[in-house]
Amino acid sequence: NQSLKNQKIKIDDLISKLVNIFKYQAGLLNEFGHNSFRFIHRTFQEYLAAKSIIYSYGKQRSEDMIYENIKNKIDIPNWRVPLSMTFGILSNSVQNNGIFNNIVTRLLKAEQVSSNTQSSTILMPFVLIDSLNDMSFLSKETEYALIRKLADMLLFDYKNISGFSRLKEHQELIHSYFLKLKIKYDNIMADWFMEKINHEQNIAACANIIYKLKWYNPIFHEIFLKNLHNDSNNWNWPIDSLLRFYSSKIKDDAILTQLKFKDTLSKHPEMIEHIVKSNDWLCLITALYGGYKNYNTPTTISEYYEISQFLQLSDNERTPFIFYYQEVWGRDNPAYRMAAYLDTE
What we know:
By secondary structure, the protein is mostly helical. The protein has 19 helices and 4 strands. The strands form 2 sheets. It has a two-stranded antiparallel ribbon. The longest helix is centred in the first third of the chain and has 24 residues, at 2-25. The chain is elongated, with a radius of gyration of 31 Å.
Protein backbone atom coordinates (compact mmCIF):
# COMPACT_ATOMS: atom_id res chain seq x y z
CA ASN A 1 0.00 0.00 0.00
CA GLN A 2 2.82 2.40 0.91
CA SER A 3 4.46 1.61 -2.41
CA LEU A 4 1.25 2.48 -4.27
CA LYS A 5 0.94 5.75 -2.33
CA ASN A 6 4.52 6.69 -3.17
CA GLN A 7 3.92 5.86 -6.83
CA LYS A 8 0.76 8.00 -6.86
CA ILE A 9 2.63 10.91 -5.27
CA LYS A 10 5.34 10.55 -7.88
CA ILE A 11 2.78 10.54 -10.72
CA ASP A 12 1.01 13.59 -9.26
CA ASP A 13 4.36 15.35 -9.01
CA LEU A 14 5.19 14.55 -12.64
CA ILE A 15 1.77 15.77 -13.77
CA SER A 16 2.25 18.99 -11.81
CA LYS A 17 5.65 19.54 -13.42
CA LEU A 18 4.20 18.83 -16.88
CA VAL A 19 1.38 21.32 -16.27
CA ASN A 20 3.92 23.92 -15.14
CA ILE A 21 5.95 23.37 -18.30
CA PHE A 22 2.85 23.71 -20.49
CA LYS A 23 1.60 26.74 -18.57
CA TYR A 24 4.71 28.78 -17.81
CA GLN A 25 7.41 27.67 -20.23
CA ALA A 26 5.39 26.84 -23.33
CA GLY A 27 2.52 29.25 -22.65
CA LEU A 28 -0.09 26.74 -23.79
CA LEU A 29 -2.45 26.71 -20.81
CA ASN A 30 -4.76 29.11 -19.03
CA GLU A 31 -5.92 28.39 -15.48
CA PHE A 32 -9.63 29.06 -14.98
CA GLY A 33 -10.21 27.27 -11.65
CA HIS A 34 -8.45 25.32 -8.93
CA ASN A 35 -6.32 22.70 -10.70
CA SER A 36 -8.38 23.32 -13.82
CA PHE A 37 -6.70 24.32 -17.07
CA ARG A 38 -7.52 24.73 -20.72
CA PHE A 39 -5.47 25.32 -23.84
CA ILE A 40 -5.17 28.94 -24.93
CA HIS A 41 -5.35 27.91 -28.56
CA ARG A 42 -8.24 26.28 -30.38
CA THR A 43 -6.67 22.86 -30.28
CA PHE A 44 -3.30 21.70 -29.08
CA GLN A 45 -2.77 19.74 -32.29
CA GLU A 46 -3.42 22.77 -34.50
CA TYR A 47 -1.13 24.90 -32.37
CA LEU A 48 1.68 22.34 -32.64
CA ALA A 49 1.09 22.17 -36.40
CA ALA A 50 1.42 25.96 -36.58
CA LYS A 51 4.61 25.87 -34.50
CA SER A 52 6.05 23.15 -36.76
CA ILE A 53 5.81 25.54 -39.71
CA ILE A 54 8.06 28.01 -37.89
CA TYR A 55 10.27 25.77 -35.71
CA SER A 56 12.16 22.51 -36.12
CA TYR A 57 13.57 20.72 -33.04
CA GLY A 58 13.25 23.90 -31.01
CA LYS A 59 15.05 26.14 -33.51
CA GLN A 60 13.39 28.70 -35.73
CA ARG A 61 13.46 27.90 -39.41
CA SER A 62 14.80 30.35 -41.99
CA GLU A 63 12.47 32.86 -43.60
CA ASP A 64 12.65 30.97 -46.91
CA MET A 65 11.74 27.68 -45.23
CA ILE A 66 8.78 29.23 -43.37
CA TYR A 67 7.62 30.81 -46.62
CA GLU A 68 7.79 27.49 -48.49
CA ASN A 69 5.98 25.67 -45.66
CA ILE A 70 3.12 28.16 -45.75
CA LYS A 71 2.97 28.29 -49.55
CA ASN A 72 2.76 24.49 -49.83
CA LYS A 73 -0.15 24.30 -47.38
CA ILE A 74 -2.31 27.22 -48.56
CA ASP A 75 -4.61 25.05 -50.68
CA ILE A 76 -5.07 22.32 -48.04
CA PRO A 77 -8.34 23.01 -46.14
CA ASN A 78 -7.24 21.23 -42.94
CA TRP A 79 -4.31 23.64 -42.64
CA ARG A 80 -6.42 26.82 -42.64
CA VAL A 81 -6.59 27.12 -38.83
CA PRO A 82 -2.90 26.26 -38.26
CA LEU A 83 -1.95 28.81 -40.93
CA SER A 84 -4.00 31.49 -39.17
CA MET A 85 -2.14 30.61 -35.97
CA THR A 86 1.17 30.74 -37.85
CA PHE A 87 0.49 34.29 -39.03
CA GLY A 88 -0.53 35.19 -35.49
CA ILE A 89 2.61 33.70 -33.92
CA LEU A 90 4.90 35.47 -36.40
CA SER A 91 3.18 38.86 -36.26
CA ASN A 92 2.86 38.89 -32.46
CA SER A 93 6.61 38.52 -32.03
CA VAL A 94 8.42 41.85 -32.36
CA GLN A 95 11.58 40.13 -33.55
CA ASN A 96 9.66 38.18 -36.21
CA ASN A 97 7.29 40.91 -37.37
CA GLY A 98 9.64 41.84 -40.19
CA ILE A 99 9.74 38.20 -41.31
CA PHE A 100 5.94 38.14 -41.15
CA ASN A 101 5.66 41.22 -43.41
CA ASN A 102 8.20 39.82 -45.88
CA ILE A 103 6.47 36.45 -46.09
CA VAL A 104 3.00 37.96 -46.59
CA THR A 105 4.36 40.25 -49.33
CA ARG A 106 6.03 37.30 -51.08
CA LEU A 107 2.91 35.13 -50.84
CA LEU A 108 0.67 37.83 -52.31
CA LYS A 109 3.15 38.61 -55.08
CA ALA A 110 3.51 34.93 -56.01
CA GLU A 111 -0.24 34.49 -56.17
CA GLN A 112 -0.67 37.60 -58.31
CA VAL A 113 1.73 36.13 -60.87
CA SER A 114 -0.05 32.77 -60.89
CA SER A 115 -3.53 34.34 -61.11
CA ASN A 116 -2.84 36.11 -64.39
CA THR A 117 -4.32 33.14 -66.26
CA GLN A 118 -8.07 33.36 -66.84
CA SER A 119 -8.88 29.95 -65.35
CA SER A 120 -7.05 30.42 -62.04
CA THR A 121 -8.42 31.73 -58.78
CA ILE A 122 -6.84 33.17 -55.66
CA LEU A 123 -6.56 31.76 -52.15
CA MET A 124 -4.24 34.01 -50.14
CA PRO A 125 -6.71 36.88 -49.57
CA PHE A 126 -9.26 34.46 -48.10
CA VAL A 127 -6.68 32.88 -45.77
CA LEU A 128 -5.27 36.23 -44.66
CA ILE A 129 -8.68 37.83 -44.09
CA ASP A 130 -9.66 34.86 -41.92
CA SER A 131 -6.39 35.35 -40.01
CA LEU A 132 -6.74 39.09 -39.32
CA ASN A 133 -8.05 38.59 -35.77
CA ASP A 134 -4.89 36.63 -34.93
CA MET A 135 -2.49 39.18 -36.41
CA SER A 136 -0.65 42.13 -34.92
CA PHE A 137 0.88 45.01 -36.87
CA LEU A 138 3.69 47.37 -35.92
CA SER A 139 1.84 50.32 -37.48
CA LYS A 140 -1.59 51.24 -38.77
CA GLU A 141 -0.01 52.16 -42.11
CA THR A 142 1.25 48.60 -42.58
CA GLU A 143 -2.10 47.15 -41.53
CA TYR A 144 -4.16 49.40 -43.80
CA ALA A 145 -1.83 48.83 -46.76
CA LEU A 146 -2.41 45.09 -46.39
CA ILE A 147 -6.19 45.57 -46.21
CA ARG A 148 -6.19 47.59 -49.42
CA LYS A 149 -4.01 44.99 -51.12
CA LEU A 150 -6.37 42.19 -50.08
CA ALA A 151 -9.35 44.17 -51.37
CA ASP A 152 -7.53 44.76 -54.68
CA MET A 153 -6.99 41.03 -55.11
CA LEU A 154 -10.59 40.19 -54.24
CA LEU A 155 -11.82 42.71 -56.82
CA PHE A 156 -9.43 41.33 -59.44
CA ASP A 157 -10.82 37.84 -58.86
CA TYR A 158 -14.40 39.14 -58.82
CA LYS A 159 -14.05 40.93 -62.16
CA ASN A 160 -12.60 37.84 -63.84
CA ILE A 161 -15.92 36.44 -65.06
CA SER A 162 -14.01 34.10 -67.38
CA GLY A 163 -12.77 32.36 -64.24
CA PHE A 164 -14.53 31.10 -61.13
CA SER A 165 -16.34 34.41 -60.70
CA ARG A 166 -18.75 33.36 -63.44
CA LEU A 167 -20.24 31.09 -60.76
CA LYS A 168 -22.81 32.66 -58.45
CA GLU A 169 -21.40 30.71 -55.49
CA HIS A 170 -17.93 32.20 -55.99
CA GLN A 171 -19.35 35.70 -56.27
CA GLU A 172 -21.23 35.15 -53.00
CA LEU A 173 -18.01 33.94 -51.37
CA ILE A 174 -16.24 37.14 -52.39
CA HIS A 175 -19.21 39.21 -51.15
CA SER A 176 -18.85 37.53 -47.75
CA TYR A 177 -15.14 38.38 -47.54
CA PHE A 178 -15.76 41.99 -48.52
CA LEU A 179 -18.31 42.05 -45.71
CA LYS A 180 -15.67 40.78 -43.26
CA LEU A 181 -13.37 43.62 -44.32
CA LYS A 182 -16.20 46.15 -44.06
CA ILE A 183 -17.12 45.04 -40.54
CA LYS A 184 -13.54 45.34 -39.28
CA TYR A 185 -12.32 48.25 -41.44
CA ASP A 186 -15.41 50.26 -42.40
CA ASN A 187 -13.72 53.61 -43.05
CA ILE A 188 -10.74 52.10 -44.86
CA MET A 189 -13.01 50.08 -47.13
CA ALA A 190 -15.28 53.07 -47.80
CA ASP A 191 -12.26 55.09 -48.94
CA TRP A 192 -11.04 52.15 -51.02
CA PHE A 193 -14.40 51.80 -52.79
CA MET A 194 -14.60 55.55 -53.44
CA GLU A 195 -11.24 55.34 -55.17
CA LYS A 196 -12.23 52.30 -57.24
CA ILE A 197 -15.66 53.50 -58.39
CA ASN A 198 -14.11 56.60 -59.90
CA HIS A 199 -12.69 54.35 -62.63
CA GLU A 200 -15.06 53.14 -65.35
CA GLN A 201 -13.52 49.66 -65.54
CA ASN A 202 -14.35 49.03 -61.87
CA ILE A 203 -17.62 50.83 -61.27
CA ALA A 204 -20.15 48.16 -62.30
CA ALA A 205 -18.43 45.34 -60.40
CA CYS A 206 -18.00 47.55 -57.32
CA ALA A 207 -21.63 48.65 -57.54
CA ASN A 208 -22.71 45.02 -57.51
CA ILE A 209 -20.60 44.27 -54.42
CA ILE A 210 -21.92 47.35 -52.61
CA TYR A 211 -25.49 46.47 -53.59
CA LYS A 212 -25.12 42.90 -52.31
CA LEU A 213 -23.74 44.25 -49.02
CA LYS A 214 -26.68 46.71 -48.84
CA TRP A 215 -24.13 49.39 -47.97
CA TYR A 216 -25.26 53.00 -48.02
CA ASN A 217 -22.86 55.90 -48.15
CA PRO A 218 -23.93 59.36 -49.40
CA ILE A 219 -20.72 59.70 -51.41
CA PHE A 220 -21.36 56.32 -53.06
CA HIS A 221 -24.83 57.58 -53.96
CA GLU A 222 -23.52 60.79 -55.46
CA ILE A 223 -20.92 58.97 -57.58
CA PHE A 224 -23.36 56.34 -58.85
CA LEU A 225 -25.93 58.99 -59.80
CA LYS A 226 -23.34 60.46 -62.15
CA ASN A 227 -22.37 57.07 -63.57
CA LEU A 228 -25.64 55.41 -64.50
CA HIS A 229 -24.37 55.36 -68.09
CA ASN A 230 -21.61 53.00 -66.92
CA ASP A 231 -24.09 50.37 -65.74
CA SER A 232 -23.47 46.87 -67.08
CA ASN A 233 -25.59 43.93 -68.14
CA ASN A 234 -22.69 41.65 -67.10
CA TRP A 235 -23.60 42.36 -63.48
CA ASN A 236 -27.37 42.60 -64.05
CA TRP A 237 -27.49 46.42 -63.98
CA PRO A 238 -26.17 46.89 -60.42
CA ILE A 239 -25.97 50.70 -60.50
CA ASP A 240 -29.67 50.94 -61.31
CA SER A 241 -30.48 48.36 -58.60
CA LEU A 242 -28.34 50.17 -56.05
CA LEU A 243 -29.87 53.58 -56.79
CA ARG A 244 -33.37 52.11 -56.48
CA PHE A 245 -32.38 50.52 -53.17
CA TYR A 246 -31.07 53.84 -51.86
CA SER A 247 -34.16 55.71 -53.05
CA SER A 248 -36.72 53.28 -51.61
CA LYS A 249 -35.05 51.82 -48.51
CA ILE A 250 -32.63 54.40 -47.10
CA LYS A 251 -34.03 57.15 -44.90
CA ASP A 252 -31.53 59.95 -45.23
CA ASP A 253 -32.07 63.61 -46.11
CA ALA A 254 -29.06 63.40 -48.41
CA ILE A 255 -31.01 61.02 -50.65
CA LEU A 256 -33.67 63.62 -51.47
CA THR A 257 -31.05 66.32 -51.86
CA GLN A 258 -29.28 64.24 -54.50
CA LEU A 259 -32.48 62.99 -56.16
CA LYS A 260 -33.50 66.41 -57.42
CA PHE A 261 -36.56 65.31 -59.39
CA LYS A 262 -37.94 63.23 -56.52
CA ASP A 263 -37.24 66.11 -54.13
CA THR A 264 -39.05 68.55 -56.42
CA LEU A 265 -42.10 66.27 -56.67
CA SER A 266 -42.27 65.90 -52.89
CA LYS A 267 -42.26 69.69 -52.51
CA HIS A 268 -44.74 70.32 -55.36
CA PRO A 269 -47.47 67.64 -55.33
CA GLU A 270 -49.39 69.58 -57.98
CA MET A 271 -46.70 68.47 -60.46
CA ILE A 272 -47.66 64.85 -59.80
CA GLU A 273 -51.29 65.60 -60.63
CA HIS A 274 -50.26 67.31 -63.87
CA ILE A 275 -48.04 64.36 -64.91
CA VAL A 276 -50.72 61.78 -64.13
CA LYS A 277 -53.34 63.66 -66.18
CA SER A 278 -51.04 64.05 -69.20
CA ASN A 279 -50.41 60.88 -71.23
CA ASP A 280 -47.31 62.34 -72.86
CA TRP A 281 -45.73 63.40 -69.58
CA LEU A 282 -46.71 60.14 -67.88
CA CYS A 283 -45.13 58.05 -70.65
CA LEU A 284 -41.96 60.13 -70.58
CA ILE A 285 -41.55 60.00 -66.79
CA THR A 286 -42.29 56.27 -66.73
CA ALA A 287 -39.70 55.64 -69.43
CA LEU A 288 -37.09 57.73 -67.63
CA TYR A 289 -37.69 56.74 -64.03
CA GLY A 290 -39.83 53.60 -64.08
CA GLY A 291 -43.24 52.94 -62.66
CA TYR A 292 -44.22 52.06 -59.11
CA LYS A 293 -42.33 48.88 -58.13
CA ASN A 294 -41.57 48.27 -61.79
CA TYR A 295 -37.84 47.59 -62.01
CA ASN A 296 -37.83 46.51 -65.68
CA THR A 297 -39.47 49.51 -67.29
CA PRO A 298 -37.55 49.54 -70.62
CA THR A 299 -38.15 45.79 -71.11
CA THR A 300 -41.82 46.13 -70.19
CA ILE A 301 -42.37 49.05 -72.56
CA SER A 302 -40.73 47.08 -75.39
CA GLU A 303 -42.95 44.09 -74.63
CA TYR A 304 -46.13 46.19 -74.66
CA TYR A 305 -45.09 47.85 -77.91
CA GLU A 306 -44.38 44.50 -79.56
CA ILE A 307 -47.76 43.09 -78.47
CA SER A 308 -49.65 46.18 -79.66
CA GLN A 309 -47.92 46.01 -83.05
CA PHE A 310 -48.93 42.36 -83.44
CA LEU A 311 -52.54 43.00 -82.43
CA GLN A 312 -52.86 45.81 -85.00
CA LEU A 313 -52.06 43.38 -87.84
CA SER A 314 -54.80 41.72 -89.90
CA ASP A 315 -55.34 37.96 -89.59
CA ASN A 316 -53.36 37.34 -92.78
CA GLU A 317 -50.50 39.58 -91.63
CA ARG A 318 -50.35 37.73 -88.30
CA THR A 319 -49.95 34.30 -89.93
CA PRO A 320 -46.09 34.25 -90.12
CA PHE A 321 -45.86 35.09 -86.42
CA ILE A 322 -48.59 32.78 -85.08
CA PHE A 323 -46.30 29.79 -84.52
CA TYR A 324 -43.89 31.88 -82.40
CA TYR A 325 -46.62 33.51 -80.32
CA GLN A 326 -48.38 30.17 -79.78
CA GLU A 327 -45.21 28.96 -78.03
CA VAL A 328 -45.22 32.04 -75.80
CA TRP A 329 -48.94 32.58 -75.17
CA GLY A 330 -50.43 29.14 -75.77
CA ARG A 331 -51.96 27.51 -78.83
CA ASP A 332 -55.52 28.42 -77.95
CA ASN A 333 -56.13 31.91 -79.42
CA PRO A 334 -52.84 33.67 -78.50
CA ALA A 335 -54.09 37.04 -79.82
CA TYR A 336 -56.95 37.03 -77.32
CA ARG A 337 -54.57 36.14 -74.47
CA MET A 338 -52.23 38.97 -75.47
CA ALA A 339 -55.07 41.49 -75.60
CA ALA A 340 -56.35 40.34 -72.20
CA TYR A 341 -52.82 40.67 -70.80
CA LEU A 342 -52.57 44.29 -71.97
CA ASP A 343 -55.99 45.08 -70.49
CA THR A 344 -55.02 43.76 -67.07
CA GLU A 345 -51.54 45.29 -66.91
